[in-house]
């Protein structure tokens, strides 16, 4: 049991957000296998509020186009010189085609605020599970919440149920560069212990 705990601790501490990927493909079945484990995240009443859309291969160009369309609708590029806009688009295009899989993670949206918050927390826990499981297999990810995830026209263009909420997009691939760890604030600086009132 101790070795398992040590492994879990190591994976949690060693995992990094990856923004630079190799061109090595990832088999979609491997991602499905990881998701089958990741969904064992805690979730109230086992509602399993999450759903997924995996964007791969030629569909990556479609997603790139719709992200750019969304940014233009939202005036994200306004105020920048055209050369800067072109560079931003080029950088986005390269990233979209460098990553073999872009996983759009959505959740059901309950009317009751308490249930909505529980389901959001559960979906986030599941996404972290996936990142940790991927790290064990030399699969890196970056979790993005860019403005297009709030754009219902983007949902429509990508075939995503507009009644759902995109919690985030995981850009997934083999790490080309692993960044150094950033120090964390000691927990004692954020911990309050009450023995009595």
UniProtKB/TrEMBL annotation:
The keyword Oxidoreductase belongs to this UniProt entry's keyword annotation: yes
Location of the Nitroreductase domain: 12-174
Binding site for FMN: 15-17, 44, 143-145
EC number: 1.-.-.-
Enzyme class, first EC level, given as a word: oxidoreductase
UniProt keyword annotation of Protein biosynthesis present: no
InterPro entries linked: NAD(P)H_nitroreductase (IPR052530), Nitroreductase (IPR029479), Nitroreductase-like (IPR000415), YdjA-like (IPR026021)
Cofactor list: FMN
Domain of life: Bacteria
Pfam families: Nitroreductase
GO molecular function, one term: oxidoreductase activity
Keywords: Flavoprotein, FMN, NAD, NADP, Oxidoreductase
Cofactor notes: Binds 1 FMN per subunit.
Annotated PANTHER family: NAD(P)H NITROREDUCTASE YDJA-RELATED
Entry's family note: Belongs to the nitroreductase family.
Protein name according to UniProt: Putative NAD(P)H nitroreductase
Protein species of origin: Pontibacillus litoralis JSM 072002
